[in-house]
Design goal:
- This protein is an alpha+beta fold.
- The strands form 12 sheets. The chain has a 7-stranded mixed sheet.
- The longest helix has 19 residues.
- It is built from 20 helices and 42 strands.
- Helix content is about 25%, strand content about 30%.
Length: about 800
């Protein structure tokens, strides 16, 4: 559920700061999962000012440029070189002085610097609308109202909207909080509880008198299935003009991620997120017989929905039909193609209804239509609010679309729903919550939430439940309401604690270990447990100097604590190979031990990987493929990704047990050593096939983790773009050098580079080879253009040519 701070504050009698409101929402059970800033104009025009063009003269060295002087309200006039064809003396314009950062409608932000253009100094920019994000036109500079005063901040003129947007994690039962007004009611209840008062109340919009149409347009309503539709309200509005919505309405919708369409559709979306009540607008002229019938149609009836797909209806689907029983809308789920509002619509019939969750949810899933309306109806809506919401929406349509009410409100409510009543005792509330709430506090909280106090005595309490809370039906529900508004943190800790509390470390070492183990096990690895006591003969005299020796060894073969994970792991590898289990993927968490100084010892935690044999056995589709260094490298890198560790630094490692070993460091801390075990070490264990080994210093790994578990990022909404380059380099140049050169190009657009081919041939030249490298670009905020990507590719090419003397194969 997405909530706008500015929008929510429209209904609050006091306005907490965004951070204070975030704390309040989380305390009352509306957990804030994220808080992000929204700007209707990127950068909010910060630093831009209104200027007056004083003079315009031709540029001596360029036909299309002009030399201007501009009054910005303070100091000396600015000398600015301008290329716009429409610049003229006397104009009021938008100026970006030196030091101001502008955010174009497309492209990267740009900070103004003093520049020399064709020999003439320029101290800023006279801006076109696309250059500052106010539109898409680049035909010329923006020419403003002549009455504007130079020096006025541009944001005071254009008033860009700044907002804060909350993403709230709602539990499925909280339909009452699926709207800004519903959340405001909870916040007011919290404020009342904090001050032990009832003075705070959500500011629900007041209804206004609707203008009357000269000619009536009466549309009747009949409900045939009253179980699926217990209430249906509607009103006819004529003379509407379909047009874009005003900026205030667009900005409210954009802040919560809803795309504006036109004034009628935007109003229905606005009301949905304001009140939680879905609405639907029909083209009244498309309603044959001027009659709306709520009914079920025969199995496999064909119906074309707004997305232009023909669907076969189920007999259980509740439909909104016209006077000929022809379907116009899937009730509470999705509209029809031929009865919806179009640009030519002038008369509408506005629907506000209550549909049964048991009817809406199966229909929504059956047709794969998970709409905002269905999400609310399937959780239950406020059956008492249909007419109020209808009148509220009708007033906005009359105001913003020029409509007039052509009928009275039609409200079909065959069997008015009685309010639910719940009785409980103060003792039960104390017992279930663990806190002895004062009776007046309980009454205050429930009253603030809209519960009616029907009966209260020294022991018991009976309340009527507001229609907006259809999930409240038993005493335990009342206890939950009291606890969350008072704050779960306010439950007293008992004087006796029967269990020993423990601090939850961040990161939790056991959870991290489990995550790594689950990843490896799911990829075919088997976990092994080997003895920490091993044979000193495995190690050179130099290693034995710092080995921890057993005073009373169990045997001559088990006389030292292991200084390395490799040897005990190779024992397990050899044991399996001797039993014809040739293809092995092992991992082990264990400790190594060393003498640090006289009488002091060091214990280090490790995660070790062992690989040998075939990574893929032969079959009719593929040949057998043995494990290799790159197979090991892939798992090592993926483990880092699983744990959210970035910034890997590769270097060659000197290790007596590895052949051509490598070391990975992070923040200059050596984390992993990996490579193929050398022949001498394999011979000790009579192993005749290649074994690959990687050893993580697990203590360092834990130290590199973030202090929270939240290192995930939202999946970008916009597509990635791939570009390829073929680089001809000297044979001794390694791909790590290519990666290092690419990192010198600072661009947030470059997400990944990958080596996908290596080619060697005398045709390339003596001692030469070719790397084929792919580059992946992506922007989380917009779709990239060729121009943006080409700019980064040009920088990459220059970096490769300058740093590696690379030639680009055409």
């Amino acid at each position: 559920m997405t909530i706008s701070y500015n929008w929510l504050c429209d209904y609050l009698p006091v306005k907490p700061t965004p951070e204070e409101l975030s704390v309040i929402l989380t305390r009352i059970g509306l957990e804030v999962e994220s808080l992000e800033q929204f700007e209707s104009v990127k950068g909010s025009l910060e630093g831009l000012v209104i200027g007056e063009v004083l003079t315009v003269a031709p540029h001596p060295n360029a036909d299309k440029l002009r030399l201007t002087t501009v009054n910005t309200g303070s100091g000396e006039p600015l000398h600015i070189v301008c290329g716009a064809p429409n610049v003229a003396a006397g104009q009021k314009v938008v100026i970006a002085p030196i030091g101001t950062t502008i955010y174009p409608a497309s492209g990267e932000p740009l900070t103004m610097k003093k520049a020399k253009i064709r020999g003439e100094e320029s101290h800023g920019m006279i801006c076109a609308e696309d250059e500052i994000g106010l539109g898409g036109s680049h035909a010329g500079i923006m020419v403003l109202d002549p009455s504007l005063v130079p020096g006025t901040p541009a944001r005071d003129v254009f008033k860009p909207v700044q907002d804060w947007v909350y993403e709230i994690g709602l539990t499925p039962n909280r339909m009452d909080a699926m709207s800004h007004l519903g959340v405001a009611k909870d916040v007011c209840a919290y404020l009342n509880n904090s001050e032990n008062t009832l003075k705070y109340k959500a500011l629900a919009p007041e209804l206004t008198t609707l203008p009357k149409a000269a000619a009536p347009l009466q549309i009747g309503v009949t409900i045939e299935n009253t179980n699926a539709c217990p209430r249906y309200s509607g009103i006819s509005i004529t003379g509407v003009k379909i047009a874009p919505s005003p900026d205030w309405l667009k900005n409210k919708l954009l802040a919560i991620g809803v795309r504006p369409i036109n004034n009628i559709v935007d109003i229905t979306n606005f009301i949905l997120h304001e009140t939680g009540q879905p609405l639907h607008a029909f083209d009244a002229d498309a309603i044959d017989g001027r009659q709306v019938i709520v009914k079920n149609l025969p199995q496999n009836t064909l119906f074309v929905t707004l997305d232009e797909k023909e669907r076969k209806l189920d007999a259980a689907d509740l439909m909104i039909c016209n006077g000929k029983s022809e379907p116009m809308c899937i009730a509470g789920v999705f509209g029809g193609l031929h009865s919806g509002v179009t640009d030519a619509t002038t008369n509408i019939f506005l629907e506000s209804a209550c549909f049964s969750p048991a009817s809406i949810r199966p229909t929504s899933f059956r047709h794969g239509l998970r709409t905002d309306a269905a999400a609310r109806f399937e959780k239950g809506t406020d059956i008492s609010a249909t007419v109020y919401v209808l009148q509220r929406a009708a007033a906005l349509i009359c105001e913003l679309a020029g409509g007039q009410a052509a009928s009275e409100v039609v409200d079909v409510y065959p069997q008015p729903k009685a309010q639910t009543e719940v009785e409980t005792s103060f003792n039960y509330i104390h017992k279930l919550s663990g806190k002895a709430y004062p009776e007046d506090k309980i009454v205050n909280i429930l009253s603030s939430l809209g519960f009616g106090i029907l009966k209260k005595d020294a022991e018991r309490l009976r309340v009527s439940v507001p229609y907006s809370k259809p999930d409240i039906s038993i005493p335990a529900d009342l206890v939950e309401e009291v606890m969350r508004i008072d704050g779960l943190d306010n439950i007293e800790i008992p004087s006796q604690v029967l269990i020993t509390p423990s601090a939850n470390l961040k990161p939790d070492p056991e959870r991290v270990r489990e995550k790594a183990a689950n990843y490896l096990a799911s990829n075919g690895f088997n976990e092994i447990f080997t003895n920490s006591i091993t044979n000193s003969k495995y190690f050179t005299p130099e290693v034995q100097e710092y080995t921890v020796k057993m005073i009373n060894s169990l045997s001559a073969d088990l006389d030292v604590m292991r200084p390395s994970m490799l040897e005990t792991g190779l024992e397990s590898v050899a044991h399996n190979l001797n039993r014809r289990n040739d293809n092995l993927l092992f991992f082990e968490f264990g400790n190594t031990y060393a003498v640090k100084e006289q009488g002091k010892y060091e214990e280090t935690a490790h995660l070790s990987l062992y690989m040998t044999g075939q990574k893929r056995t032969e079959n009719w589709m593929h040949k057998a493929e043995p494990v290799d260094f790159y197979f090991l490298k892939g798992y090592v890198q993926n483990l880092f990704k699983q744990l959210g560790i970035t910034g890997l630094q590769w270097s060659e490692a000197e290790n007596d047990s590895l052949q051509n070993g490598w070391q990975i460091s992070v923040k200059n801390k050596p984390v992993v050593v990996l490579g193929a075990v050398n022949a001498q070490k394999l011979k000790q264990f009579d192993i005749k096939q290649q074994v690959l080994f990687a050893d993580f210093n697990w203590k360092i790994v834990l130290g590199l983790l973030q202090k929270s578990d939240n290192f995930y990022k939202e999946i970008p909404k916009f597509p990635a773009v791939r570009r390829d380059l073929a680089l001809v380099l000297d044979k001794q140049v390694k791909f790590a050098a290519v990666e290092a050169a690419a990192k010198t190009v600072k661009s947030s657009l470059l997400q990944e580079l990958n080596l996908f081919d290596v080619f060697e041939s005398e045709k390339l030249g003596a001692n030469k080879k070719s790397y084929a490298v792919s580059f992946t670009f992506q922007d989380a905020q917009k779709t990239l253009t060729d121009k943006e990507i080409d700019a980064v590719m040009d920088k990459l090419v220059k970096a490769f040519e300058g740093q590696l003397q690379a030639e680009i194969r055409k």
